[in-house]
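User: Sequence in, structure out. Go.
Assistant: Echoing your sequence, followed by the structure tokens.
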Amino acid sequence: MVTLESLLVASESTGYAGGRGSLAGLRIAAGARGWQEVPIRKGDPTKVVLKPVRADAARQNSMSATTGLEEQPLHTDGAHLATPPDFVLLYSKDVDPTPTLLWKPALQFRNTIGGRSAALRHGVFLVESGSHSFFAHALDPGGYRFDPCCMTACDARSREATELLQTASRVEEFHWSDPGTVLLIRNRMVLHGRASVKDGSDDREIERVAFYQKAVL
């Protein structure tokens, strides 16, 4: 069984790590470290169950309302929040054939980031967040913030940033091939999404808990 410490060590370079483990135990370990659980949507509990749904049956303003059962765009969970979560923990009690997609932009941009950082760091996006919409950049000192379903490019630099972040290479697939599998994602380092829902995923249920590493007031 993986521990939170082992997941943190394994994810330092890749931005994610997984294995068989206990979601309840990992939440306890996170709390002992002083991590704060974050509800991604207002009014939701901190632990939610993600299920594939058709676009016409999805919650309004959710990513599924845009993509339905097709592939989700790579994104940052909680991009619409003033401070996106530092970590996202996913758990599946069952084997599931639909993989989670993971992409670390720094791997693709490491040789050219100098010329592209202006777009990522200074392009202005309007972030739709209900009645509290705000402006933000795709890359800030905390890491990446990107979700094309809630962020609208407002200038040439942000349009360039959108193009960069939607032309991902070196995308990795994480397979839910064992029951009781957990996946820890460094949410500001790695963008993630869901592949198109495959046959056999009708009952897919992925539990998710997001965390701030330090309490955010």
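User: And one key feature?
Assistant: The first helix runs from residue 4 to 14.
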